[in-house]
Amino acid sequence: MADKSKTRMNLAAIKKVDPYAKDIVDTSSHVAFYIFNSEQNEWEKTDVEGAFFIYSRNAQPFHSIFINNRLNTTSFVEPITNHLELQAQAPFLLYRNERSRIRGFWFYNSLECERIILLCSLLTH
Protein backbone atom coordinates (compact mmCIF):
# COMPACT_ATOMS: atom_id res chain seq x y z
CA MET A 1 0.00 0.00 0.00
CA ALA A 2 2.80 2.42 0.87
CA ASP A 3 4.49 1.73 -2.49
CA LYS A 4 1.35 2.66 -4.44
CA SER A 5 1.03 5.88 -2.46
CA LYS A 6 4.71 6.70 -3.06
CA THR A 7 4.33 5.96 -6.79
CA ARG A 8 1.27 8.24 -7.00
CA MET A 9 3.17 11.00 -5.20
CA ASN A 10 6.18 10.65 -7.52
CA LEU A 11 3.98 10.62 -10.63
CA ALA A 12 2.25 13.79 -9.39
CA ALA A 13 5.68 15.48 -9.07
CA ILE A 14 6.56 14.44 -12.64
CA LYS A 15 3.18 15.68 -13.95
CA LYS A 16 3.91 19.15 -12.53
CA VAL A 17 6.82 19.34 -14.98
CA ASP A 18 5.36 17.19 -17.79
CA PRO A 19 1.55 17.12 -18.01
CA TYR A 20 1.78 14.27 -20.57
CA ALA A 21 3.34 11.89 -18.02
CA LYS A 22 1.34 8.67 -17.80
CA ASP A 23 3.09 6.00 -15.68
CA ILE A 24 6.39 5.40 -13.92
CA VAL A 25 8.18 2.55 -15.72
CA ASP A 26 11.29 2.22 -13.51
CA THR A 27 13.19 4.08 -10.80
CA SER A 28 16.56 4.38 -9.14
CA SER A 29 16.89 5.65 -5.60
CA HIS A 30 19.74 8.11 -6.19
CA VAL A 31 21.72 9.49 -9.13
CA ALA A 32 23.96 12.46 -9.78
CA PHE A 33 24.00 14.20 -13.17
CA TYR A 34 27.25 15.11 -14.96
CA ILE A 35 28.08 17.06 -18.13
CA PHE A 36 31.23 16.46 -20.18
CA ASN A 37 33.28 19.62 -20.77
CA SER A 38 34.98 18.94 -24.12
CA GLU A 39 37.22 22.03 -23.84
CA GLN A 40 38.65 20.85 -20.50
CA ASN A 41 38.24 17.16 -21.42
CA GLU A 42 36.67 16.39 -18.04
CA TRP A 43 33.36 15.61 -16.38
CA GLU A 44 31.64 18.32 -14.36
CA LYS A 45 29.13 17.53 -11.63
CA THR A 46 25.97 19.58 -11.94
CA ASP A 47 23.55 20.74 -9.26
CA VAL A 48 21.13 17.94 -10.22
CA GLU A 49 20.96 14.96 -7.88
CA GLY A 50 18.13 12.82 -6.57
CA ALA A 51 15.64 10.07 -7.37
CA PHE A 52 15.67 8.93 -11.02
CA PHE A 53 12.57 7.90 -12.96
CA ILE A 54 11.84 6.58 -16.42
CA TYR A 55 8.22 7.31 -17.23
CA SER A 56 5.83 6.79 -20.10
CA ARG A 57 3.99 9.66 -21.79
CA ASN A 58 0.70 10.14 -23.64
CA ALA A 59 2.48 12.00 -26.47
CA GLN A 60 5.75 11.76 -28.40
CA PRO A 61 8.36 11.07 -27.24
CA PHE A 62 6.63 8.22 -25.43
CA HIS A 63 9.26 7.92 -22.66
CA SER A 64 11.41 10.37 -20.71
CA ILE A 65 13.87 10.52 -17.85
CA PHE A 66 13.06 12.62 -14.79
CA ILE A 67 15.28 13.43 -11.80
CA ASN A 68 13.47 14.78 -8.77
CA ASN A 69 16.26 17.15 -7.76
CA ARG A 70 17.14 17.23 -4.06
CA LEU A 71 19.69 20.03 -4.37
CA ASN A 72 17.33 22.74 -5.62
CA THR A 73 13.87 23.23 -7.09
CA THR A 74 14.89 22.65 -10.73
CA SER A 75 14.02 19.12 -11.80
CA PHE A 76 15.65 17.41 -14.79
CA VAL A 77 13.87 15.96 -17.84
CA GLU A 78 15.47 14.25 -20.85
CA PRO A 79 13.29 12.75 -23.60
CA ILE A 80 14.20 9.19 -24.59
CA THR A 81 14.31 9.01 -28.38
CA ASN A 82 16.08 6.88 -30.96
CA HIS A 83 18.54 9.79 -31.34
CA LEU A 84 19.91 9.18 -27.84
CA GLU A 85 23.32 7.47 -28.08
CA LEU A 86 23.97 5.38 -24.96
CA GLN A 87 27.20 4.08 -23.49
CA ALA A 88 27.11 1.82 -20.45
CA GLN A 89 29.92 1.95 -17.90
CA ALA A 90 28.22 0.95 -14.65
CA PRO A 91 27.78 2.70 -12.26
CA PHE A 92 27.58 5.32 -15.04
CA LEU A 93 25.11 5.65 -17.89
CA LEU A 94 26.62 8.02 -20.44
CA TYR A 95 24.76 9.44 -23.40
CA ARG A 96 24.83 11.95 -26.23
CA ASN A 97 21.54 13.72 -26.91
CA GLU A 98 20.13 15.31 -30.07
CA ARG A 99 22.04 18.51 -29.33
CA SER A 100 25.32 16.49 -29.36
CA ARG A 101 25.99 17.17 -25.71
CA ILE A 102 27.69 14.37 -23.79
CA ARG A 103 26.13 13.78 -20.39
CA GLY A 104 26.03 11.09 -17.76
CA PHE A 105 24.26 9.74 -14.72
CA TRP A 106 26.16 8.27 -11.79
CA PHE A 107 24.06 5.68 -9.96
CA TYR A 108 24.55 5.09 -6.25
CA ASN A 109 23.38 1.50 -6.77
CA SER A 110 25.19 -0.41 -9.56
CA LEU A 111 22.42 -3.00 -9.88
CA GLU A 112 19.86 -0.25 -10.47
CA CYS A 113 22.22 1.23 -13.05
CA GLU A 114 22.48 -2.04 -14.97
CA ARG A 115 18.69 -2.45 -14.98
CA ILE A 116 18.17 1.14 -16.19
CA ILE A 117 20.82 0.69 -18.91
CA LEU A 118 18.93 -2.33 -20.28
CA LEU A 119 15.62 -0.49 -20.23
CA CYS A 120 17.05 2.62 -21.93
CA SER A 121 18.63 0.43 -24.61
CA LEU A 122 15.25 -1.14 -25.34
CA LEU A 123 13.48 2.22 -25.43
CA THR A 124 15.96 3.83 -27.84
CA HIS A 125 15.63 1.08 -30.48
Automatic annotation (TrEMBL):
Q: Which UniProt keywords apply?
A: Cytoplasm, mRNA processing
Q: Name one Pfam family in it.
A: DCP1
Q: Which GO terms describe its biological process?
A: deadenylation-dependent decapping of nuclear-transcribed mRNA; deadenylation-independent decapping of nuclear-transcribed mRNA; mRNA processing
Alphabetically, the GO molecular function entries are:
enzyme activator activity; mRNA binding
Q: What is its main location?
A: cytoplasm
Q: Give Gene Ontology CC terms.
A: P-body
Location in or out of the cell = Cytoplasm
**Protein family membership:** Belongs to the DCP1 family.
What's the protein here called? Answer: mRNA-decapping enzyme C-terminal domain-containing protein
